[in-house]
Recover the amino acids of this structure.
């Protein structure tokens, strides 16, 4: 295996290049709630590594970042295995309902992608993916004896659940244009978001090579330098030929298994057959039409290489749409990996306590840690990556930071 530059040998010069090239980029996406992780991982399609390391030409971290930026893969197909381990408790299915709400709810159909794809929030899943440009994508979630497919073909978005024989149909207004502004949902999209954190708070190195789904790849290692973040490291395997990110693994600072380990077990960059994106509702299937202006399915596919915001602002809405509706006006506190998103839900009293939802509030409260400080009192909900503090006066502080950092931020807000 060819030698690679270490963090020590790349040193100040490389850090300066990284800071200069990325200073104007939007900050790293800060999840605004524990349930926001679900929305952030929906549709994610990176890769799984084979054994053995290929001998590839020497490359610097900056060159590898540039290679990713220049990658323009429009067509691909493959099989994906994705494992998510946020350390969520077993809530008997309640967590799916919560994350479904965070992702935008649904129209009551089991084929509605906003509800169906939240299953990716936990466990291990196998998917088949295909793309032919910005207007034709397909994602199939393989289940025991059943399959769920989400197809985007031009202005049509179809969701089909074979288990219930239900179909969801929506339209993608201005397909191909509006689609590019949605949240990250592919290896390149997600890698782009992670790379926005590259500045003086981050160490970026080339960490050798790997075989990924039968292809040679470089490994880019991103590690926060700051204390107080729950992120340990992000490893991105980048296809040596195309520059397409092929593997994305996020490990927590607390150690143990990866929070997110997702990847292609097989991938091809040839054009998929046109019939791949054909869909006609099966006979007898129940068809639910999406409401006017419904954008279900947009963010689930990402852009297979083009999903970016165009205004340079943090894509907070992409990390947990709909949470409290207050997140649209969220303020980002701090810098780099210890950034914290905060917003006011307008709901005094913290968790639900009324007669109709008091039981739910009590149940949720039992899952969190009660804290207090200059800000007053509140409850911290934790996963292995994202922590969220909900104060008794209705404010939310959330991010990939420790509980202590959240309390400190809430105290400073007083």
């Amino acid at each position: 295996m060819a030698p690679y530059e270490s963090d020590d040998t790349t040193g100040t010069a490389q850090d300066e290049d990284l800071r200069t090239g990325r200073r104007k980029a939007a900050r790293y996406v800060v999840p605004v709630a524990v349930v926001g992780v679900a929305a952030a991982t929906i549709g994610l399609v990176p890769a799984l590594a084979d054994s053995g390391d290929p001998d590839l030409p020497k490359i610097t971290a900056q060159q590898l970042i540039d290679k990713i930026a220049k990658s323009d893969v429009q067509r691909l197909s493959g099989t994906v295995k994705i494992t998510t381990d946020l350390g969520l408790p077993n809530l008997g299915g309640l967590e799916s309902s919560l994350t479904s709400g965070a992702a935008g709810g649904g129209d009551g159909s089991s084929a509605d992608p906003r509800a169906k794809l939240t299953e990716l929030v936990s466990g291990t899943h196998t998917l088949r993916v295909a793309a032919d440009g910005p207007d034709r994508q397909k994602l199939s979630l393989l289940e025991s004896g059943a399959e769920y497919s989400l197809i985007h073909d031009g202005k049509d978005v179809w969701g089909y659940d074979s288990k219930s024989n239900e179909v969801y149909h929506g339209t993608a207004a201005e397909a191909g244009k509006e689609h590019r502004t949605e949240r990250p949902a592919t290896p390149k999209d997600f890698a782009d978001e992670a790379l926005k954190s590259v500045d003086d708070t981050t160490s970026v190195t080339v960490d050798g090579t790997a075989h990924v789904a039968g292809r040679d790849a470089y490994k880019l290692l991103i590690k926060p330098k700051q204390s107080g973040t729950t992120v340990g490291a992000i490893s991105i395997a980048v296809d040596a030929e195309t520059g397409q990110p092929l593997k994305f693994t996020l490990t927590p600072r607390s150690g143990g298994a990866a929070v997110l380990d997702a990847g292609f077990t097989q991938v091809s960059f040839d054009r998929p057959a046109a019939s791949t994106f054909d869909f006609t509702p099966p006979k007898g299937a129940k068809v639910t039409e999406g409401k006017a202006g419904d954008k279900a399915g947009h963010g689930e596919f990402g852009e297979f290489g083009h999903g970016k915001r165009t205004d340079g602002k943090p894509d907070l809405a992409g990390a947990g749409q709909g949470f409290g509706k207050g997140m649209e006006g969220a303020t980002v506190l701090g810098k780099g990996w210890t950034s914290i998103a905060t917003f006011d839900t307008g709901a005094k009293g913290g968790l639900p306590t009324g007669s109709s939802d008091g039981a739910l509030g009590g149940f949720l409260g039992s899952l969190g840690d009660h804290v207090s400080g200059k800000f007053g009192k509140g409850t911290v909900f934790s996963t292995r990556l994202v922590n969220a503090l909900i104060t008794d006066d209705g404010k939310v502080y959330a991010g990939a930071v420790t509980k202590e950092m959240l309390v400190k931020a809430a105290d400073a807000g007083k």
In short: The chain has a mean pLDDT of 74. The longest helix spans residues 7-22.
